[in-house]
Amino acid sequence: xxxxxxxxxxxxxxxxxxxxxxxxxxxxxxxxLAQVKKILPTLNIPKEEFVFISGIGCSSRFPYYMNTYGMxxxxxxxxxxxxxxKVARPDLQVWVITGDGDSLSIGGNHFMHMIRxxxxxxxxxxxxxxxxxxxxxxxxxxxQGKRTKSTPYGSVxxxxxxxxxxxxxxxxxxxxxxxxxxxHLCYVLERAANHKGTALVEVYQDCNVFNSGAFDxxxxxxxxxxxxxxxxxxxxxxxxxxxxxxxxxxxFSQPEVVELGKGGVSEDDLLFHDEKQENPTLAxxxxxxxxxxxxxxxxxxxxxxxxxxxxxxxxxxxxxxEKYGPGNLEDLFSTGDTWTVE
Amino acid sequence: xxxxDTQSNGNGNFRTTEQVDAVVIRFCGDSGDGMQLVGTxxxxxxxxxxxxxxxxxDFPAEIRAPAGTLNGVSGFQLCFSSTDIFTPGDEVDxxxxxxxxxxxxNLADLKRGGTLIVNKDAFDKSGLSKAGYATNPLEDDNDSxxxxxxxxxxxxxxxxxxxxxxxxxxxxxxxCKNFFALxxxxxxxxxxxxxxxxxxxxxxxxxxxxxxxxxxALKAGADLGYSTQAFTVHYKVPPAKLPPGKYRKMTGNxxxxxxxxxxxxxxxxxxxxxxxxxxxxxxxxxxLSKLKNFGVRTAQxxxxxxxxxxxxxxxxxxxxxxxxxxxxxxxxxxxxxxxxVITELPLVIVNVQRGGPSTGLPTKTEQADLMMSFFGRNGExxxxxxxAATPGDAFDVSREALRLAVEFMTPVFLxxxxxxxxxxxxxxxxxxxxxxxxxxxxIKEANGQDGQYLPYLRNDRLVRPWAxxxxxxxxxxxxxxxxxxxxxxxxxxxxxxxxxxxxxxxKIAGIANHIxxxxxxxxxxxxxxxxxxxxxxGSVRTAVQRAQKDGHKVTLAHIxxxxxxxxxxxxxxxxxxxxxxxxxxxxQLRFLLRAMFLCDAKGLNKMKGKPxxxxxxxDAILENLKK
Lengths: 342, 627
Description:
The structure holds two protein chains of two kinds.
Chain A (H helix, E strand, L loop, with lengths): L28 H11 L10 E5 L14 E4 L5 H11 L4 E7 H7 L1 H10 L4 E6 L34 H7 L4 E6 L3 H12 L5 E6 L11 H4 L1 H7 E3 L7 E2 L5 E5 L5 E5 L21 H7 L8 E8 L5 H16 L4 H5 L4 E4 L1
Parallel strand pairs in A: 1-2, 1-3, 3-4, 4-6, 5-6, 7-11
Antiparallel strand pairs in A: 5-11, 8-9, 9-10
Helix pairs in contact in A: 1-6, 2-10, 3-4, 5-9
Chain B lengths: L1 E7 L5 E6 L2 E9 L4 H15 L2 E7 L14 E9 L10 E6 L2 H7 L3 E10 L5 H6 L18 E5 L1 H8 L7 H5 L2 H12 L5 H10 L4 H20 L5 E4 L8 E7 H15 L4 E5 L6 H8 L7 E4 L3 H13 L3 E6 L1 H17 L3 E7 L16 H6 L9 E3 L5 H16 L2 E7 H5 L1 E5 L48 E3 L14 H16 L16 E8 L3 H13 L4 E6 L1 E3 L5 H6 L1 E8 L4 H10 L4 E4 L8 H13 L1
Parallel strand pairs in B: 2-9, 3-6, 6-7, 7-8, 11-12, 11-13, 13-14, 14-16, 15-16, 19-20, 19-22, 22-23
Antiparallel strand pairs in B: 1-2, 3-5, 4-5, 10-17, 15-21
Helix pairs in contact in B: 1-6, 4-8, 6-8, 7-8, 9-10, 9-14, 11-12, 17-20
């Protein structure tokens, strides 16, 4: 015989707050918000257990639009706030909402340390390659040469690849999707939600006001099949409208595009995706494949198991308490030499 | 002072034991000479014996500056006494100098006629030159040491002799000479070395030859005192008459850690602490990290900003959250503290002040962060500030800081300083019954109409509720943008912003109704009111007492609550003709008092990285009375 507690069935509407959404019309953020609201009810977790923590930027308004617990904090610090919260309250589902400027520029330090600690947080990085809220300056992910308000003659900065940074810090989960690719985004977000550890999802998000069309190569139907490789665990890297192109490692262990069937190349010669490889080298190599130099991988780059920081901190508290017994103030006060004055 | 005992040492030489009330000793040597260690040992032994003790460790910021140089000198001063004392002493009675550099940098503080014990072996050509001595001050024709009782001891040689048959390397043997010096001083002041012997046995348990060597060196030092004609007098300092009870030695940093853990524990809460290593606050992190069986979660995070913001996150989650740092770190935390102010979340920020600006003097004390605590954030950003007066007081003040944070839903500054943090005093172990739990409530039910939760609905103290994530029906968002009072929704409404600024200020000002009135030490009115705060308490109090004994109408108001001030402070100030504010800064409290109470306060200001001498404050009192 089994007993079960009936959980109320939640819908996306249950996760919507009463606040008017104030992003620009046709901003990519709307789609991301909608997909998050769509997948949360499928997780069978009570709404009050979710906390959304954000930094500063357009995307960081996100928590106001969710009818969950949330904090719209200060620039770059969401990972640190979320880490403190998760250590103090490991029972909560803590999501971090951040952008490319927020997480990679002012908050680069916290971003890296959250990942290497593997705090059990879900992180959505809205990457639009621009500073939107401050009205259009280049960001740490803007391509070199980019003309913006602060780079009228073109940016001379070399950009960061967020997933390379994350995988370099041995992220246990790193994935990429695109704002308008609804089905794929939902799949990736759901994978992230079910991952234990820091789950980073980079979402290419179109800022139609200051950086319109930056990700057309990955969002336009006709372009994406030629420019993107959709990663599947255990499957070879194949792409193209006719699925006739693939990725093979050459003699220098570098990825190269080959045509299937040409020169005797078969599927078996291709690179097979293994998201569970403990060694991050392959995932890093995939993260370095960037459009337009190469077709760009989408999906889950890496998903491995490693103990989480919040678990470890709390386990240690438990272990020490078991070993030495629960703290006793009288004993604590009397540690070291004591003496009595009559 | 009286001779109480004369005895023969068996060689036909007679020794005198003199009883004295208080002695100030300073051990000084190279950073690698173990001076902090022997100073601490002497302090422990004296405390266990029942003396009142007060200490002043003084060490360089460099871990190991080049050996033998002036920059590498490390010192540890302590006063032990048969009466209540509040400072480690103005003048040194006995100076132990392990090398020429130590002698050169410390001799000026030795009082005329005081005892000087030097390691003669270190005064070789190289040692003298590193210290910048052209001639050897120990040589007979050099009169720089005239007026002191000088004992030139072959410490290096005698230490080597004492460990000769233990098979140590020369380097290992030489490292025992601090215990040789300690043994000699133990003999000189009639101390029982047992606690130190026990410490050596446990510290070096894994290396029996080092246990033996350090014990031998300790004994050799004492034997020298006993057998040499040079030491004709040794001294006895009887136990102090402290209030009855069980005591231990306590440093300020230990007291902060224990005070916070105790306050959380009796309140049924667990402590969350995030910190980043910084002198002189790191020991708070070290102490708390040991106390995991009290449920303390400590995180050494990537930077100061992560430390403050992690505590904001933990506080949002319902923890009693704390971070500690020193000036440069507090500067980095400013924005995060502002977030805690606007989200009205409780947390404690400990600032163990050191010399500034910038990196300043990391290991030296100063009180120059008061203005930063008041005003060092963007916008109108008021928060409570309280300051510890002594190492032991830091225990009580820590609980008080947590209480104010939680009862008023606000971040609170707890000010300590390098002197309090590293200084030690006997601490009477409190009765647990006297550590009162902190009242906290987590709201469980909606507080608005139609089941709505209003995160900024305030009580009669203007305090908002603390709803924990995970509580059904109370989902809400907080953040750094201005909030509409009541609903907590983002608001750009001009009237709301003015209302919120005034409300946050009123909430903090209202704390004055929930803290004690300003206590006075001395008559209620008179010629001069001395106002002090923080770690200068010991020197200022001693100076005021001395002036009172001399018949002057002087009163001390030592302020613990700096923001808001006790509500009677203004009225107290008006009852005195003159006001003197001694501070280890250029006059920050004085500036505030003048601005807020229109009083003509004068200052005594010292910025040398060192605490006040009693005499400095005493002289300033007399001078201000004359004016």
